[in-house]
Design goal:
The protein is of the alpha+beta class. It is built from 21 helices and 21 strands. It has two domains: about 375 residues, no CATH class; about 190 residues, Orthogonal Bundle (Serum Albumin, Chain A, Domain 1), CATH 1.10.246. Helix content is about 30%, strand content about 15%.
Length: about 600
């Protein structure tokens, strides 16, 4: 989304027939000439992200002999510079890794955690839930960062380079700067009011007290120094050192401008919380779909279970032969049902009895799929089923609402010449996170704890997503890797977008696997998102089609109700092709378009 200094842009028109365009990150001396294109095909490895600088950082590491894990961390660190409102070392995320040698998938839960002093009343004040805006821009919403621990764990388990080596590209970008574009300016403008609450944030992101100018060079020397310290000392500087001390001091006494009048409620993060934090190695979720193995992240994220359940619901429908109306109807209803079950059953498994295996069973999906009718629409909120005791078309209990999750997360997908693959989604929650910058350190803190339910949806129904000491809030992040019958990768993908991540991944997967769309077209296709709500959200290409015989009208005739969402998700993906080639794909338009790059483009 951001361009490097002096970058020359090129425009790529993408159609279903265009699958042979290649974009490669050049050597360092030529890097300014990299164009931002949404699809690339070639050899030696591939990277897809929302930003050309970040993708180039990953390609640089691959070119110098690093593997997919090394390149993923390099790309993520660069996104922390160029996408600071969506990611960074002040946040967390989920990392899914395919090991080509063992043909096995591994995952890391790097989700933020609540302070050890937190309880279910974390966001209650005078017995009532805080207003969401009051919780966001405060210390209360900040969880213990998990991104640094995720990087260290991934490199230790599967990487081939040191942290200091893979941080070099990001450190260079932070020091030398990147060119501000309209997206960066508009995201800053959307946060201008609350950024001014915090002097250190205003100093960094509102240079000279003004919005950054499109075309100007944006530098972050504080973050360059922070990366340099992490390179020297490792992530222990955060979890046991002076960087961590600065984070704790900032959370517990947010440095607010007294003249702003903003009540920046203090958090209760402690050195003990940082020292206790661990990025968790855990088994992936697995779903069989059309004879393929679909692997993703298990709880604390709901992504793997919810996408997996929806795929299982759709398993017995031949979507390749369905009309566009039938396809979208089935997709919407499967999403509605799986979100009903997500709300009731998924939380942090260290605190909640999450029936992950049962949620992903075909038997349970079949018991839920029978709720779907071709000529009628389910009424939301749909009540959850009981995956422990599947009953045909059975529902029971009270539906839990879908909690709000910030949409400006970011996703990257990487493959290397050995066939290893990474699908990694990281976040600081909503655009700009908490709005609080750690003084002198150059990064924003997350507001991830606002993903918890502030209060139970119903006193009679257990809510698995209430806060607790050291608990991880439920997420919708869904980094996914699909393997063929021989255990080799077919495609890997993921997306930002809060709760719409799940529907974005599901729609992209079914578009690619069932509908036969080229990967870049499956990503670019107009999206719908149903999350057990009264109305289904549609992007403009679908919503604005109001013609009597149009797709929207035909869906409304069945009973669907819609509302407009200007933009849903921003996916990236890689696809394994024959003869050792990789195809990297990203958005053509959403969030300014994405950046797909390969080490050596195919002719």
């Amino acid at each position: 989304m951001r361009r490097p200094v002096a970058r020359k842009l090129s425009v790529l028109a993408v159609s279903a027939a265009v699958v042979t365009v290649g974009a490669a990150a050049p050597p360092a001396a030529e890097r300014a000439a990299v164009a931002k294109v949404p699809v690339a095909v070639g050899y030696g490895g591939a990277v897809a992200s929302v930003d050309a600088d970040a993708s180039a950082a990953g390609i640089e590491v691959l070119r110098e002999g690093g593997n997919a894990v090394d390149a993923a961390v390099a790309t993520a660190a660069a996104l922390g510079v160029t996408e600071p409102y969506s990611s960074g070392i002040g946040g967390g995320g989920y990392f899914v890794y395919y090991d080509a040698k063992s043909r096995a998938v591994h995952t890391i839960d790097g989700r933020e955690t609540a302070p050890l002093t937190a309880d279910s009343g974390l966001f209650l004040e005078n017995g009532k839930p805080l207003a969401f805006a009051d919780a966001v821009s405060s210390g209360l919403g900040v969880g213990t960062p998990g991104t640094p621990a995720t990087w260290a764990t991934a490199l230790k388990e599967w990487g081939s380079e040191r942290l200091g080596t893979v941080l070099k590209p990001a450190q260079r970008i932070a020091r030398d700067g990147f060119t501000v574009d309209e997206t960066f300016r508009s995201q800053t403008a959307a946060n201008e009011t609350r950024f001014r609450y915090f002097p250190d944030t205003a100093k960094l992101f509102l240079p000279g007290g003004q919005l950054p100018v499109v075309g100007s060079t944006f530098k972050n020397p504080d973050l360059a120094r922070t990366y340099a310290q992490l390179a020297r000392e490792g992530v222990g500087a955060i979890y046991r050192g002076d960087l961590g001390e600065d984070i704790v001091a900032t959370v517990d006494k947010p440095p607010v401008d007294p003249a702003s009048g903003w009540n920046a409620r203090p958090g209760e993060l402690s050195a003990k919380d940082l020292a206790a934090y661990r990025a968790k190695l855990q088994a992936p979720t697995k779903t069989s779909y059309r004879g393929l193995g679909v692997y993703s992240i298990a709880p604390s994220s709901s992504g793997g279970t919810t996408v997996g359940e929806a795929l299982n619901i759709l398993e017995k429908t031949d979507l390749s032969k369905a009309s566009e109306v039938q396809y979208l109807h089935r997709f919407i209803e499967a999403s509605r049902i799986s979100f009903a079950d997500r709300g009731r059953w998924v939380g942090d498994p260290a605190f909640e009895d999450v029936p992950t295996k049962q949620l992903l069973s075909q038997k349970y999906a079949d018991s839920r799929a029978c709720l779907i009718k071709d000529d009628a629409v389910l009424t939301s909120p749909v009540a959850p089923g009981d995956p422990r005791h599947p009953a045909a078309c059975g529902t029971g209990g009270t539906a839990a609402p879908t909690t709000y999750e910030g949409e400006n997360t970011t996703h990257l997908t990487v493959a290397d010449k050995w066939g290893n693959v990474v699908s990694y989604t990281l976040t600081i929650e909503q655009t700009g996170g908490s709005g609080i910058t750690v003084p002198g350190r150059g990064f924003l803190l997350n507001n991830e704890l606002t993903d918890f339910s502030f209060a139970p949806a119903s006193p009679a129904v257990h809510d698995p997503n209430l806060p607790g000491p050291g608990k991880r809030p439920r997420s919708s992040i869904s980094p996914t890797i699909v393997l063929d019958r021989h255990g080799k990768p077919v495609v890997a993908l993921g997306s930002p977008g809060g709760a719409t991540i799940i529907t974005t991944v599901l729609q992209t997967l079914t578009g690619f696997l069932d509908r036969g769309l080229p990967l870049v077209d499956a990503i670019a296709a107009p999206r719908a998102s149903q999350r057990n709500a009264a109305q289904t959200e549609l992007e403009p290409a679908l919503y604005d089609d109001t013609s009597p015989g149009g797709l929207r009208a035909r869906l409304e005739a069945i009973g669907h109700s819609f509302k407009l969402n200007p933009e849903i998700g921003a996916a990236t993906a890689v696809q394994r092709l024959p003869d050792g080639k990789w195809l990297a794909a990203a958005e053509t338009v959403r969030r300014g378009g994405g950046s797909a790059q390969v080490v050596r483009p195919a002719p």
